[in-house]
Amino acid sequence: MNSSKLLFKRLSAEWKYQYSVFKSIADWTIILYVAVPAAFISFFIYRSWWTEMPEWISMVPAVFLFLPGYIASWGGHYRTFIQEADKVFLIKNRKLYFGLKKGAFFYSLLAGASQAALIAILLLPFLMGHYGFTMAYAASYFLFFFSCRVFIMWLKQKLRKIEGKFLRILSNLGSFVLLSWVVQLIFALWIGGNLLLFNMSAILLLALGIFLYSRILPKTSTFDSEAAFEREERVKYTGLIFQLSYEVEMPSTSTVRKKPFLFRHSKRIFKNRTVSAGFLEVFIKVFLRSPSYWSNYLKIISPAVAAIIIIPPIWLKTLIAICFLIMMFSWLQMIWGKITISHPLTKKYGERDAYFSARSKAVWVLFLLSIILVILAAAGGLWLTGQMPAGSPSL
Question: 77-103, pLDDT tens digit by residue?
Fold first, then answer.
């Protein structure tokens, strides 16, 4: 087996693994409430940008165009596709080992180029329709942020080796801010129309990123850290896929028992000690103490708010609102059953009237609260983007 076949085999195995995980959770709720509406809405949003500029784009200066490309540049990593079991064989067969890493390096570059191209294509209606730039500017935009991604992937490898979680977070944050200043200075050339210097800066940054990574590419001393990172990447992708399902919450990996921030002394919430109050108290405490529950609650709210603000046609806003109501209500009912009826102390009371009374109260309170949050957040967003003045919205 040569390195190309080994790389293809590793890639094929990972894609099949990720697909099998997604397939195991892609039930009708995911397809109906996430996949189909997301594809449908995204198509109409992008098409509307070509036919009519949204009002909020008039409030965005051209200098802010660096933000999507720069933020996306921090999302990539250099992959190696090595495994812990390779340590004995691949280290001895260095030609195969280096061939695998080189192939993974070019795969990482291809993935980075694809992401930069996607960002440029998504921004193309604004670049040409609103700001008046040409295709040459769009190509320069792609080249520069592809170069940024290549350099940042090398930088993130260095930052990942820093000992201490707090110091590592601080270093990442400082690098993000400092590098953003440098990117803004170079991006001013693009805004000013000096494409020659801008493209030369992009090429130099690309060459620097490739050169710096090529120096560590042949090293075998980094095998353990690279294998550990590959394992984390596999788990991370699996976690992201599971987060698409609101019926699955990712458990905490902490093994140290800590006191909860809310209700840390487990005091009673209700003075009236009834069965219904007991169910409500268990649900409220578990729901608020678990980040996976309230974060999924916000994850359902936030896309609805964003879509209502961004999408121009009123009929699409209405369709999104209806899908949100159906999804939120069904999710709250599912979470109620998961927290209460599955608990060993409350399971035997699941057929009592108090159980259904408490479920109705809890679900409707959180349901109405979500509606209020969507209305307030969407109204604020529409006001900030200048879409609140009186007048009939465009259909």
Answer: 888 888 888 887 877 788 888 888 899
